[in-house]
Design brief:
By secondary structure, this protein is mainly beta. It contains three helices and 19 strands. The strands form three sheets. Strands 1, 2, 3, 4, 5, 6, 7, 8, 11, 12, 14 and 17 form a twelve-stranded mixed sheet that branches. Strands 9-19-18-15-16 form a five-stranded mixed sheet, with no helix packed on it. A two-stranded antiparallel sheet has the order 10-13. Strand 15 and strand 16 form a beta hairpin. The radius of gyration is 18 Å and the shape is globular. It starts with a strand and ends with a strand. The mean pLDDT is about 95.
Length: about 280
C-alpha cells in the first residue's frame, strides 16, 4: 500500500496510490483529518480494507503531492551512514555511534515540489536517502525486533546549505533547516521486505550521481531504531532518514552546487521516485 498526502484544487487530503491514480481516504475514513492521524490511530489495516477493489478517484497528474505525513512529531536524520563516506570527513575508523540531527517539517516539500535556493547562499546541496516511518510508540526496542516497529519506507532529499553546516562551531542544524531545501515522498510504501537490501539511486539532471544499496549502511535500520529508542520514545508517524551514499563527484573542485533549473530524482525500485526541481528564493 502506498500512502500519500496531496492537494487537489487547493483542498488538502490523503489517500492510497493505486496504479496512476489516488483512492481518496479522507472521504472514506472521515474521522481522520490527516494521514498522520491514521498512523497514530494504528488504522493502516482499515485503510487497506477500504481501498480493496476500489478504482482511483483522481489521476496522479491532477494533484499536488505533499510530504506524506504533515508535521510529524520528529524528523530525525542520520549522518555519515554508508561505508566509505567517512573518507569525505577524514575519519580513520567508522563511527562507533550514529550521528544525528533534526529537520523541521517546513524544511521539506513533496515530490514535484520546488527546492528553494535561499538568497543568502548559493551552496544548496542534495543527499538522497531512504527514510523509515515508525508505526507504533516504542522505547528500548531490542535490535532483534526493531524492524517490527517500521510501518513503511519513503524517500528523502536531505537538502543542505553547505556553508551553514558549521555556522555554529559544533552543529549542523542551521544548514539542514532552510525552508523548502529538502523533500520527502512521493509516498509511504508499507509493503516492503525489510530483510532484503534496497537499491538507492540518485540522478542530477538525468545523470547518476549516487548509487548504492542498504547493504552498505554502517548502521542498519534495526541498529538505528535500537540506538534511538535507548534515549527517546518514538511515536507513530515519526520519520528517520537513514543517511546518504557517497557521491560520485564528492571531490569535485570547486564543488558543484544546485542551481535554478536543476532536477534531482531519488529512486528506490521498492518505493518509487522522489523528483524535484530547483528555483531561487524570491
Amino acid at each position: 500500500m502506498r500512502l500519500t498526502s496531496y492537494n487537489l484544487r487547493g483542498r488538502p487530503s490523503f489517500g492510497a496510490v493505486v496504479g496512476d491514480g489516488i483512492v481518496d481516504l479522507r472521504s472514506r475514513l472521515s474521522r481522520f483529518a490527516t494521514l498522520l492521524e491514521v498512523f497514530r490511530a494504528h488504522a493502516l489495516d482499515q485503510a487497506k480494507a477500504v481501498i480493496a477493489g476500489v478504482r482511483p478517484d483522481v489521476p496522479l497528474t491532477e494533484v499536488e503531492l505533499l510530504p506524506p505525513l504533515p508535521a510529524p512529531e520528529k524528523i530525525l536524520c542520520i549522518g555519515i551512514n554508508y561505508k566509505n563516506r567517512e573518507r569525505d570527513y577524514d575519519f580513520a575508523e567508522p563511527p562507533k555511534y550514529p550521528s544525528m540531527f533534526y529537520r523541521a517539517p517546513n524544511s521539506v516539500v513533496g515530490s514535484g515540489g520546488t527546492l528553494i535556493r535561499p538568497k543568502i547562499s548559493e551552496q544548496l546541496d542534495y543527499e538522497g536517502e531512504i527514510a523509515m516511518v515508525i508505526g507504533r510508540e516504542c522505547k528500548h526496542v531490542p535490535k532483534e525486533s526493531a524492524l517490527s516497529v517500521i510501518a513503511g519506507l519513503t524517500l528523502c532529499n536531505e537538502g543542505t546549505i553547505r556553508d551553514w553546516i558549521r555556522h555554529g562551531k559544533f552543529n549542523v542544524t542551521q544548514g539542514k533547516n532552510f525552508d523548502a531545501t529538502g523533500s520527502i515522498g512521493p509516498w509511504i510504501e508499507t509493503d516492503i521486505d525489510l530483510s532484503q537490501p534496497l537499491q538507492l539511486t540518485v540522478r542530477k539532471n538525468g545523470e547518476v550521481t549516487q548509487d548504492d544499496t542498504t547493504d552498505n549502511m554502517i548502521f542498519s535500520f534495526a541498529d538505528l531504531i535500537a540506538y534511538v529508542t535507548t534515549f527517546m520514545t518514538l511515536k507513530p508517524g515519526d520519520v528517520i532518514s537513514t543517511g546518504t551514499p557517497v557521491k560520485q563527484d564528492a571531490k569535485a573542485d570547486p564543488p558543484v552546487w544546485l542551481k535554478p533549473g536543476d532536477t534531482i530524482e531519488i529512486e528506490c525500485p521498492a518505493i518509487g521516485v522522489l523528483r524535484n526541481s530547483v528555483a531561487d528564493e524570491t
